[in-house]
Design brief:
Blueprint: H1 2-39, H2 42-71, E1 75-76, H3 83-96, E2 102-106, E3 113-119, E4 122-128, H4 129-134, H5 137-152, H6 155-182, H7 190-234, H8 237-248, H9 277-281, H10 288-296
Parallel strand pairs: 2-4
Antiparallel strand pairs: 1-2, 3-4
Helix pairs in contact: 1-2, 1-6, 1-7, 2-6, 3-5, 5-7, 5-8, 6-7, 8-10
């Protein structure tokens, strides 16, 4: 059962990765052409776009794990300091059939956790000290199993690719908008060029929004799958359900260590203060109450 679920999720995430990369290349091409039209040289725009996208993507792909753990102020989780957490990660990794990931801890009373990396061979699980201190044995194992399910299913790769897309598009969109003001009027003769500049503005505004919505949508869907994967590993839905209840009641869900670049990684959205339709629409996570309800019905 565990192998079948894992295979299906890995296959689906491999397809999502291909689709995301294809979408990424399409948007890169459109932005490159738009930048070229603004500056009066399409080749220049395409070259600038390809260089910027390639450098950013390569750095994020190769150093993503180190960048994220440093960004949130994580340090190594040692067996001497946190023996139960250490052995739980080791044991559940063996059960999941993946290499034991690097282990990190964040010194904060907040209750949260996440996994990151580009694949199971280059992954990390990050727990907060508050989570380790306040969850019981079964609850902590449920959270760890959830994060290992993200790793086993290659969710971490999909989310890294989505994050790269968002970051590159934000950078290039800003470059495109600034180019409209500093291009000195090149490439702006005639009604056709004016139309293209309008298109460039629209593209510059919409591209990062589209990329962000894709990133958020993938993140929300993956949380349900990881919850189910955790149950497959632990055979105890009540453990993760109990953990999520305590996490949802946490008044300070790591909001000081997380930001828009890392919110989607955590098991529970660190920014839960915002409410209403728009907050739900642009949330990186499904409602935690729905997740608890699904677990309790298993």
């Amino acid at each position: 059962m565990a192998k079948l679920v894992s295979f299906d999720e890995i296959r689906a995430n491999n397809l999502r990765s291909i689709l995301l990369i294809g979408f990424f290349l399409l948007l890169m091409g459109l932005i490159g052409v738009a930048i070229g039209l603004v500056w009066g040289n399409i080749l220049f725009g395409i070259i600038i776009t390809l260089i910027a996208a390639s450098v950013y993507a390569l750095m994020a792909y190769l150093q993503g794990r180190a960048m994220v753990t440093k960004m949130v102020g994580a340090r190594e989780l040692t067996k001497k300091e946190f023996p139960h957490a250490y052995h739980s990660i080791e044991g559940l990794s063996l059960a999941a059939g993946i290499p034991t990931p690097k282990m990190y801890v964040i010194d904060t009373p907040a209750l949260n956790a996440f996994a990151t990396g580009r694949n199971p061979d280059n992954s990390a699980v990050v727990l907060t000290t508050g989570l380790i201190a306040k969850l019981n044995r079964q609850e902590l194992e449920g959270v760890i199993a959830h994060e290992l399910a993200h790793i086993r299913n290659y969710d971490i790769r999909v989310m890294m690719i989505a994050a790269v897309i968002t970051g590159v598009l934000l950078f290039l969109s800003q470059f495109l908008l600034r180019s409209l003001f500093f291009s000195g009027g090149r490439g702006r003769d005639g009604k056709g060029q004016i139309i293209m500049i309008v298109v460039a503005i629209v593209l510059a505004i919409l591209s990062p929004i589209i990329a962000e919505m894709i990133r958020l949508g993938i993140s929300r869907k993956r949380e349900y799958a990881a919850d189910a994967g955790a149950v497959v590993l632990t055979r105890y839905p009540a453990g993760l359900a109990g953990a999520l209840k305590k996490i949802s009641a946490d008044p300070k869900p790591a909001e000081r260590i997380a930001n828009s670049a890392t919110n989607h990684l955590f098991i529970s959205n660190p920014d839960r203060k915002k409410t209403g339709f728009w907050a739900r629409t642009f949330s990186t996570h499904p409602p935690i109450e729905d997740r608890i309800d699904r677990l309790e019905r298993m």
